[in-house]
Design goal:
Length: 365
């Protein structure tokens, strides 16, 4: 019987405090809803899995990503029933990631999650410079990051990743070098470096005039094309290979991330969670209360054109690449090949510089 493989994204929409830059679907002061939320999440996971089983008896979940919000703002014991629902269907080597905020992370929480099956931790470090953490309106300080990594190792978690943010007014070459040096001295297998974006819905967006012109940080930087290129070059010397515009891996890329960018199917469950199945994008209500009031997901059938655009953008931003036969503007593709901006390997075309991925996608799309 044919194997049906799928990934699972689970959203935990709770945070202890809201960072200035963040427009993610996360809420503070909703502690009273945490227990019922986790019970409901487990029920919806069971419902979705059983729906799938009706059509595909041979179901295998190849990766799970529990993101937020702040998953460690929910007590570890609240995760048991959730794991009980999907664990029987996990592939033998399934990657099970969870995000955590160094603030309020405990050894007990990490140990319990590890014993439930988590084998990859993504820590929201953001910076190793306290003044930058204060600028970002984070509540943790750099020492908590070291402590969190120590605890993760103690809990038996070896596949460790951190998130860093760059492009703040405090970022200069010496600060970034110091931060990257610190990061690379830690036992990490993966690192995400995100350029600060001022997103609608965040406090930074509401006060954007007071932040000055962050576009100043987008151009040439220390002889590199951009701050991102500077970071990429440093990380390369330490054995971190860029596999997507913001993602670097020492050994292998995150399997779950790759599945998104390859356009593979995944279930998205939780308040505001997005999924993709059979050419249909599903999204659950963003409001926690609405999510709790009954299973509902909006469905958007992606047109062939939109699926193609997605393939071009995700592919050129990452090591996934793009199928040559799907590229509409072959005349522009020829120009890019001649200019050495893209390369061909087999039947696929890859951007040579993922930071130029969006421009390339627009040029050949
Ligand atoms: C949903 S958060 C999960 C981690 C956890 N909540 C924490 O912050 O510690 C995922 C990551 O997205 C990044 N991020 C969120 N908003 C961003 C923004 N406006 N600009 C750049 N990076 C952002 C941060 O690096 C953050 O760690
Ligand atoms: S960055 Fe993370 S901790 Fe901060 S508000 Fe967003 S989800 Fe919460």
């Amino acid at each position: 019987m044919k194997l049906f493989e799928i990934s699972l994204y689970l959203h935990i929409p709770f945070c202890d405090s809201k960072c200035g830059y963040c427009a993610f679907n996360s809420q503070i002061n909703k502690n009273h809803l945490k227990t019922i939320y986790m019970e409901t999440l487990a029920r919806y996971v069971s419902y979705k899995i059983h729906n799938l089983l009706e059509e595909n008896q041979n179901l295998q979940i190849t990766s799970v990503y529990i993101g937020g919000g702040t998953p460690n703002s929910v007590k570890s014991r609240a995760y048991s029933s959730l794991f009980a629902e999907f664990s029987p269907y996990l592939a033998p080597q399934a990657e099970i990631s969870i995000e955590a905020n160094p603030n309020s992370l405990s050894l007990e929480w990490l140990q319990t999650l590890q014993s439930l099956g988590v084998n990859r931790l993504s820590l929201g470090a953001q910076s190793f410079e306290d003044s930058k953490l204060i600028f970002l309106e984070r509540h943790h300080r750099k020492d908590s990051i070291f402590y969190a990594i120590e605890m993760a190792l103690k809990a038996g978690l070896k596949n460790l990743s951190i998130d860093l943010i760059y492009g703040t007014p405090l970022c200069n070459a010496s600060l970034l070098t110091q931060e990257l040096e610190t990061a690379c001295a830690l036992p990490l297998s993966h690192l995400s470096a995100y350029q600060l974006s001022i997103d609608e819905g965040s406090r930074f967006y509401a006060n954007k005039e007071s932040l000055g012109n962050l576009r100043d940080f987008e151009g040439e930087f220390e002889g590199f094309l951009s701050m991102g290129h500077f970071i990429k070059s440093y990380l390369q010397t330490k054995g971190f290979k860029q596999y997507e515009v913001s993602n670097y891996a020492k050994t292998s890329p995150s399997y779950h991330n790759l599945r998104y960018w390859e356009g593979k199917e995944y279930l998205g469950i939780g308040a505001g969670a997005v999924g993709f199945q059979g050419g249909v994008r599903t999204s659950m209500p963003k409001s926690i209360e609405k999510f709790l009031s009954g299973f509902y997901e909006e469905k958007e059938i992606l047109s062939t054109h939109n699926q193609l655009l997605e393939h071009l953008f995700l592919g050129f931003r990452s090591c996934v690449g793009v199928e040559r036969k799907r590229i509409p503007n072959t005349r522009n593709l020829k120009i890019l090949l001649e200019e050495n901006k893209v390369k061909q390997d087999g039947e696929r075309i890859y951007a040579k510089d993922y930071f130029l991925g969006d421009e390339i996608a627009l040029f050949v799309g």
